[in-house]
Amino acid sequence: MTFPGGLRALNHRDFRVFWTGQLVSLVGTWMQSVAQSWLVLQLSDSALKLGLIGTFQFAPVLLFSVVAGALADRLPKRRLILATQTALCLQALALTALVWTGHVRYWHVAVLALLLGCANVIDMPTRQAFVVEMVGRGDLVNAVALNSAAFNGARIVGPAVAGLLIARFGLAPAFLLNGLSFLVVLGALLLVRADGAPRPRAGTTMGEEVLEGLRYALGTPRIALMLSLVLVVSLFVFNFTVFVPLLTRSVLRLGAEGFGFLMAALGVGAVTGALALATLGSRQTPLRAIFVAGGLSCVALLALSATALFHEAVLLLFLTGFYSIVFIASCNTTLQLTTPDELRGRVMSLHTLMFGGVFPLGAFMTGALAEAFGVPTALRVAGGGGLVGMAAIALWWRARRASAFSRT
Fold first, then answer.
1. Beta carbons within 8 Å of 220's beta carbon, 6+ residues apart
2. Phi-psi region at 25: left, alpha or beta (left = phi > 0; alpha = psi -120 to 50)
3. pLDDT value for 407
4. What pLDDT does residue 363 have?
5. pTM of the model
6. Residues 282, 142: contact at Cβ < 8 Å?
7. In CATH, what number is assigned to the domain containing residue 390?
């Protein structure tokens, strides 16, 4: 069977198997994300404590991303992903047992969120760098877009199913199904033939390789630009697991089912954006379009701060999902296509640092502002801060280009 142009990365057998396993696992991951947020609010009824869970979950990404990228460039990527996915499976099953027996406490969730972050800090850059090993550079844009579609398709199904499960059967089944979903992705990884073997190295130490990656990223203008944009938009926009449950409970006055459907609206928008990106073929997204997509995701948050109606929130979350995924997937493919193979793990670890590592700061900021001044104020600060940050980067890029042009 030959897949059409918009799905052509699936013509690669290894990627097709890997992508299918990831899709099943990601549905479980989003179910756990919803259940975990709801569990924290049940245990603490605190916006600040909800934000702190995000801080614990992403703190390892902030601290260890660059080292994890060097590790991904040194070891066979498929085996490394097998190890991290096994750890994530065990984490979900431990949370299931605590909830099911009624022994769960806030500190349990915090510790398990920290362990989840320790596995993810290695898993995220390794998985991203492994994609090109399965599809080649020619189909990389399409593969990244399809991965984004899978991630956000799961965001549609996972929260909706989790909301219904929580409302009818409690929290434990959502955690259990996530743990079981990892068995599917582990089976898929065992069927993948590509091993993602590391490129030959010149006998350098881990520290030297980390410094080499940093020098390359900071010394390559387009790489530095993409990482700066990802940093700003991730800090202000991608705090969905904090501001959506707060919006649901504090502004819209809805329960678990409403929360699930609002998260699903975010996912529908993101899938639509990812599929639109998949139609670009092997072309990179123009730089102007990346700026526009990032800016519009910030504008959508500003509009969301002014609404108290469910149908308006659904529409605005759809737009937030659409523009934010076009932005982040475009930055991802630009980074991967610009970076040489032997440095890809390290550069993608910097992408992970900018994307996930700043989440503890963003989650804490959003939770603290929401608790002190209300959810609408937190959303206004997020949207406005993102726009100011992007404007500053645009001015720097324009000044740099003008300087380079004057030297020629």
1. 338
2. alpha
3. 64
4. 78
5. 0.76
6. yes
7. 1.20.1250.20
